[in-house]
Amino acid sequence: MTEQIWAGVDIGGSKILAVGVDEHANVLARAQFPSPAAHGAAAILDAAAEAVRVVLARAGGTCRGIGVGAAGVIDPEAGTVVAASGSFPGWTGTKITPELSARCEGLPVATDNDVNMLLLGEIFAGGDTPVRHALAVALGTGVGGALLVDGSLLHGGGPGAGEIGHIGRFGDAPCTCGQIGHLESYASGRSIARRYAEGSGEQADAAEVAVRAGAGDPVAVRVFAEAGTHVGAAIADACGLLGIELAVLGGGVAGAWRLLEPAMTRSLAERPLLTGRPVQVRPARLGELGIAVGAALHARSAA
Predict the structure, then answer these.
(1) Do 4-120+288-302 and 130-283 have matching folds?
(2) What is the Cα–Cα distance from 191 to 176, expressed in whole angstroms?
(3) Nearest CA to 259 among 219, 230, 221, 208?
């Protein structure tokens, strides 16, 4: 009997990554290309379709469907980009689901936000006993979030539910959305670099700030401690509202787990759930494959 395959695609600003998984979520093949995000929607979808073709050729079997985890605010029913950052010119309004299907011989496509797909991958293929309620926080260039409630992704009254990066008032730092003091103002890669420059007078990206914090640079240590404190507070508030006991922390900035974790743990301990227990937070385990694996699982569920 021919093996059933589901493809998952992670569409990001720096890369297009695709995987092929079997019915047990084992990764059979992967392919990665630089993202042509600066060249518009057609170029992105062409690259995604090529990544799918490469993956399916390597994996063999019969493809049952394609899942997509895409950057931006996504309408999952229509598979359309509702809003996107300036890093994706022409991406807003793109009809990912029908346009990618047309490029992939009519295969069914299911599309959702990339952090939603990260959460699915981590919960259902990341090594935990699957749970029905969880939060994902992605600390990258910006800060994204996703919610699993009663076993289903929560989309709320409109696309964008779970966007933890744009809630709260943690200070007076400007946010990319035009408001003040959001979590993204303190815990994103851009914000960590900015706050380090403000405190030290030196330019460094978030990865370099992490290196300097590990070497004992006091400004870098403070910037990561503040980020960890605010991440913990935001997670506690979000999970307290919904009674969620598990959060998964992903994204490039979360790679500096040992710098974020002490302050984050203290912040969570100060804000326990009504059970008296703090929210348990763990780092993402699937690494760069998390979004694509979650997208493949999304395609399998849709099928």
Answers:
(1) yes
(2) 9
(3) 221
Task: For the chain, list residues with pLDDT below 70.
Answer: 1-2, 158-160
User: How would DSSP label each residue in 202-257?
Assistant: ----HHHHHHHHHTT-HHHHHHHHHHHHHHHHHHHHHHHHHT--EEEEESSGGGGH
pTM given for the model? 0.93
CA separation for the pair 215, 25 (Å, rounded) = 39
Question: Looking at residue 159, what is its pLDDT?
Answer: 65
Architecture of domain 4-120+288-302: 2-Layer Sandwich (3.30)
**Quick check: 273 and 243 in contact, CB under 8 A?**
yes
Structure tokens at 276: 């008296």
Number of CB atoms found within 10 A of residue 240's CB: 14
